[in-house]
């Protein structure tokens, strides 16, 4: 049953067994910071979808939002994969274990894997587009004025964000500092450049010029 803790600004968390078990899993295995952020991503993604008049599956959007940062957990620090891929793979395992159809699994996997790759998700399925839209709204403030102050306040009242900017940057840094090579060509290189002394970001031009090809 949907409770007051599962609705904000008219957007409801799906009242399904799958959503409930995903909520419990993420709450038990991630920090309070990531839990509240992930829930806000769902609500803001749902609001952006409503504002854009997009037809989307709320359950798939919720699952994408809830799992999108689980790859920052310490268990994945030595994986050698981008944290987005670790997050997507964890969601895939969870969904397949619950017998979710493969097309739905693919949508959730793609939504998570691409959530830090701007300029692509917005042209894909609504669930893929809206996970990124929710992340961009909560982390970067992209489209901030497209939602009303009342809508924002309703979500933040349910899932507060004290010192969120600094805390999420620390979480990103802690989650990827042990595998800096995975930030080549993506926005997380900016995080390590700011917060990890001695980090040297990969250079696409030098990679081409220094390749084993003679010309």
From TrEMBL:
CDD domains: HDc
InterPro entries: HD/PDEase_dom, HD_domain
Domain of life the protein comes from: Bacteria
Residue ranges annotated for the HD domain, each copy included: 35-122
Annotated protein name in UniProt: HD domain-containing protein
């Amino acid at each position: 049953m949907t409770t007051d803790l599962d609705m904000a600004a008219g957007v409801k968390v799906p009242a399904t067994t799958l959503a409930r078990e995903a909520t419990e899993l993420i709450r038990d295995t991630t920090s309070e910071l990531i839990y509240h952020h992930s829930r806000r991503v769902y609500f803001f993604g749902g609001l952006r979808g409503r504002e854009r008049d997009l037809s989307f599956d709320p359950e798939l959007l919720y699952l994408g939002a809830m799992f999108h940062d689980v790859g920052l957990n310490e268990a994945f620090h030595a994986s050698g994969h981008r944290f987005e891929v670790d997050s997507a793979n964890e969601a895939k395992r969870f969904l397949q274990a619950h017998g979710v159809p493969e097309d739905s699994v693919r949508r959730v996997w793609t939504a998570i894997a691409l959530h830090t790759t701007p300029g692509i998700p917005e042209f894909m399925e609504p669930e893929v587009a809206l996970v990124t839209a929710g992340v961009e709204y909560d982390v970067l403030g992209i489209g901030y004025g497209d939602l009303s102050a009342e809508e924002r306040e309703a979500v933040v009242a349910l899932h507060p964000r004290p010192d969120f900017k600094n805390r999420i940057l620390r979480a990103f840094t802690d989650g990827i500092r042990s595998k800096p090579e995975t930030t080549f060509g993506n926005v997380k290189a900016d995080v390590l450049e700011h917060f990890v002394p001695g980090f040297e970001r990969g250079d696409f031009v030098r990679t081409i010029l220094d390749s084993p090809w003679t010309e």
